[in-house]
Specification:
10 helices, 2 domains, binds zinc ion, mainly alpha, 3 strands, Arc Repressor Mutant, subunit A, globular, Four Helix Bundle (Hemerythrin (Met), subunit A)
């Protein structure tokens, strides 16, 4: 099963050279955990020094993120964490409302013991993070729940699309949500898993739609403008 958090594989950026995949994963994770915010400039030179990698390697990672619409590149200005527009934000949710109920139905049809275990283990991780109020983990795990469901449903196109869409959702939430960042409501993930346990794809799809409505409903047309300290984010 593909994992979005490949942190154990990563070396300490201060002590070793980073590959472009590692750079990609660290930036991806920083966005997922809301440490990197929309519109942040990703200066090649600074990232190259932070990750002890060549600029070419940094560019390779940034190009991959740009291909996934997570990063934007402007001639003569450089790379920036994407700032999805209100319209793009709506597009993201429209796409999720089409894909995720299909993920639920497909997953309910081919549930097995292993998949149940994976879902319940993930719910437990989410609960543990909430217990200790680990906000970064809560945000990351909330997004990963959706990626996990897609991966378990077993359609690689869903999985790829959802990985992109959930990262874009993270950026959208950061841009258009209240200062206190909301993540997925835990009880809704639980209700989804309960329905999947029973093989009830219709209920799971319905709860998923309500869940997406709640997330989109919390958005405000509000944006934040902040200077980011890249060294602080990655080397802290
Ligand atoms: Zn969720």
């Amino acid at each position: 099963m593909p994992k979005t958090s490949a942190l154990p594989l990563l070396k300490d950026p201060q002590s070793a050279d980073s590959t472009s995949d590692e750079i990609y994963e660290r930036i991806y994770l920083a966005i997922l955990e809301h440490r990197l915010t929309p519109g942040t400039k990703l200066a090649e030179e600074r990232l190259a020094s932070i990750f002890k990698a060549s600029r070419a390697r940094v560019r390779e990672a940034l190009s991959k993120l740009a291909y996934e619409q997570i990063v934007e590149v402007f001639p003569k200005k450089g790379w920036f964490v994407a700032r999805p527009s209100v319209e793009q934000a709506r597009d993201v949710f429209e796409a999720r409302r089409l894909i995720e109920p299909a993920v639920m139905r497909r997953l309910a049809q081919n549930m097995d013991v292993e998949k149940k275990t994976a879902l319940h283990e993930h719910l437990e991780k989410e609960m543990d993070a909430r217990k200790v109020d680990d906000k970064r983990a809560i945000i990351r795990l909330s997004g990963e729940f959706h990626n996990l469901a897609a991966a378990l449903a077993g359609n690689s196109s869903f999985t790829r699309s959802l990985r992109e869409l959930s990262t874009l959702t993270c950026l959208v939430i950061l841009l258009y949500n209240a200062p206190i960042v909301a993540s997925c409501r835990a009880d809704e993930h639980e209700r989804i898993v309960e329905a999947l346990d029973r093989g009830d794809g219709e209920t799971a799809a319905q709860v998923m739609l309500e869940h997406l409505d709640h997330i989109e409903g919390a958005l405000k047309l509000d944006s934040t403008e902040e200077e980011a300290d890249l060294e602080e984010i990655f080397l802290r």
